[in-house]
Amino acid sequence: MIAQLNSISLYVICGSIVAFVAAVCIVFMVRAYKAGIAIGMDPAKLKRTLTSSVTFSVLPSIGILLGVIALSGSLGTPWPWLRLSVIGALHYETQVAQAAAEQVGLHTLSAAEMTPQAFATIALLMSVCIMWGMILSFFFNKGYLKKLGGQKKEKTDSKPGFGDMAMTAMFIGLVSTYIGSYIGGFVSGEGLFTFKGDLTPVIVALVSGLFMSGFIYLAEKKNMVWLESFSIAGSMLAGMIAAILL
Predict the structure, then answer these.
(1) Buried b / exposed e along 136-153 (16+ C-beta atoms within 10 A)
(2) How far apart are CA 79 and CA 81, in angstroms?
(3) What is the CA radius of gyration of the chain?
(4) What DSSP character marks residue 59?
């Protein structure tokens, strides 16, 4: 099955879509540069902006590469490459792929158990679940931005709005769910101190969280703002190294 998932046809299909998206990005970049020149912006500043953008995109993209590598063992290389190059996110792709795999009867998300029907279901679910952000933005984003702009004008203090608090609460809930599942997989229900699972996910989560806290501290307290671009990739690498060592 892994040979089919890494077939030439899949590489051609996924590679064509990635190439199209890359071409669109280049077109918009060139048009933005020309528009900046047209309104009188300094060409030297525009070139510095381009250089810094490329520089600060390299290390964060390592997280994307890690995601492709992590999923390629079970879904092949072309499909994770497409998903994480265009619109996907690592935490979303892995979560949905695992949930879909469980629903089609696979014990684990692995190439050894993968079937064509299971892959089709997983790929379809990964695509359908994430497209609603684009669809809803197309219909409602303009009105939302107008409302958001009006709220900013009326706002007189620095307190976060409902949207910020809702996103924070949702993220905390998501992280708590993951941590709870790790702890639940380690602790059995037979007794308070009876353990049957693997503690590695819990330790990896703690290590990643500690590194992320360190990045945030340095960025906010030590004015090392440039570290924000590397915090996710750095925390992921730290967690993976911890898993390997354990």
Answers:
(1) eeeeeeeeeeeeeeeeee
(2) 5
(3) 22
(4) T
φ, ψ dihedrals at 195, nearest 5°: -120, 145
Token digits of residue 87: 């619109």
Tokens at 54, concatenated: 């490329």
- CA-closest candidate to residue 175, choices 209, 200, 141: 209
In whole angstroms, what is the distance from residue 118 CA to residue 154 CA?
A: 51
Nearest to 62 by CA among 241, 242, 235: 235
| Residue of 242, 205, 212, 240 whose CA lies nearest to 228 | 212
Q: Given the structure tokens 């879509």, which residue do they identify?
A: 17
Give the pLDDT score at 153: 54
Q: Is 77's pLDDT higher than 60?
A: yes
pLDDT tens profile 139-166: 888 877 777 665 555 555 567 677 778 8
The size of the chain, in residues, is: 246
Q: Which two tokens stand for residue 41?
A: 């912006």
User: What's the distance, CA 238 to chain centroid?
Assistant: 17
| Identity of the residue numbered 110 | S
Residues 6+ apart with CB under 8 A from 209: 235
Give the mean pLDDT of the chain. 82
What residues contact 121, with CB distance under 8 A and at least 6 apart?
Answer: 100, 103, 104
179-237 per-position pLDDT tens digit: 888 788 777 655 445 556 678 888 898 999 999 999 999 988 988 887 776 787 788 88
pLDDT at 110 over 70: yes
